[in-house]
Structures are given as structure tokens and as C-alpha cells.
């Protein structure tokens, strides 16, 4: 009971598993009570360790910010990377997206680690998402309405395409071990198939919503763009722009890095004796 009280927000209990009914005193009829509030936040040691510290999201994407808020990182500082994303398209999609995300994280980290006026840095999270056509072409954000229409028609007609998201997470080391930080990365891949029966009229109507203007591939699966998609194979939030489970794993790894180094050092010392 005491544990439940620790999670109460504004004195209100969390949603109950059973359906609650209330009785109308005038006619004796019963009706279902409205839900009390949103679900409780995740109570994870990893998130609890940093959620009140200075954590930076090196991206201006509101979708990534929303996804991280879902796991408890709701007080993120937004510091988008200013480095041009101009790596050669001759790189494989895996290398292209991985190098871009890593570059974003390291650029922001290098500036903010010395920005003591804003507080001690605990974590930097960066990500990059690309859409790759069935023939291996990396698709950028649409450049015009005409380009947008052609892009979506191409994705419909080509069958399936792939979405790659790379995540890079950095944290300063408490020890003075070179290079002074922990860096962990991951690349997630999801296959997306558009509905072959999509009409040109529906594509045109979607383009007119302007929802996909700021998105690689020209659509947002978490919004009206879901109408374009027949099915996916892989992580849904990877297509949105941030694979949450993989990101949480990276956060755990960088925060545990100091302990791993200390264990390694102790093992070597013990071996030498």
C-alpha cells in the first residue's frame, strides 16, 4: 500500500483493473465511471538515475521527444546538432545513418560538456532516421509537392521499403579514463509495405495535409500516414523515429560503463598480484 502512495499524482489513484460503475440516484441506473487519469510513469532504476539530471536530446524532432517522455525522460533539454548531414550517399544505409547519428551526438557533447552554466551533463541522446527504397536509394524529405507525390507513388509501386534509425547515446565517465566518455550505438531496421491498392487521389489528399513534409520518405506512420501502410515487419517506433527498447538498452550501457571499467581494473590488479 505504501508503494502505491509513492506514485500518486495530485492525490489521485491510478487507473484500476476492474471497471468501476456509479449509480444514478434519480433512476437507479448504473453507468461506467470515466477513467481517473493516465497510467503511472515507468519506475525503472535506469530512468530514475537520470530523469532529474541534465539530459540532452540532440534533435529538434517533437516525435522523438514524445517517445522519450513515454519512458520517463520528460525534462529533456533540446539542443539540435548543427552539423550538416551531407555524408556521401555511396555509403551503405547502415553506415550512413550510424555515422550521422554518432556525429550528431559527439558534436553536441563536445560543446555541452563544458557548458557548466547549464549544469553538469549526464546524458546526450542523438538519432537519425532514413527511408531506403527497394532499389537502395536513400530518400530525403520531399523538396516540393511534386517531389512528394512522386516519392509516395514510388513507395507504393515498389512493394516494400526499409526504415533505418540509428541511435547514439553518450555519458561522461566519472573516472579519468580516456576518452572521458562512454558511447554506445545501435541501428534498427524495419520493413514497411504500402498498400498496393492506394489510389492516386488518396496520395494527393495525404500530400495536401502537409503531414509528411518534414519527414524522410514523406509520411508519418503515427498520424494520417498510417492510411498508406499495409503492414510492417519490425519496430513501429523505429519508423516513428526512435526505437524505444533499443534506446533504453543504450542508456543502461553508458550508465554502467564506469562500473564495468572499475571491475576490469580490479580484475587486472588482482591478476597481477
How do you describe this structure in short?
The protein has 273 residues and is of the alpha+beta class. The protein is built from nine helices and nine strands. The N and C termini lie far apart (51 Å).
- Please provide the ordered H/E string of secondary-structure elements: HEEHEHEHEEHEEHEHHH
Principal-axis shape equals globular
Estimate what percentage of residues fall within beta strands: 15-25%
C-alpha-based Rg, rounded: 23 Å
SS-based structural class? alpha+beta
End-to-end CA span? 51 Å
Estimate percent helicity.
25-40%
Total count of strands: 9
**Runs with pLDDT <50, length 5+?**
1-5
Mean pLDDT comes to 86
Largest sheet: 7 strands, mixed
Q: Number of DSSP helices?
A: 9
Task: Walk me through what this model shows.
By secondary structure, this protein is α+β, with helices and mostly antiparallel strands. 35% of the residues lie in helices and 21% in strands. It contains 9 helices and 9 strands. The strands form 2 sheets. Strands 3, 4, 5, 6, 7, 8 and 9 form a 7-stranded mixed β-sheet that branches. Mean pLDDT is 86; it is low at 1-5.
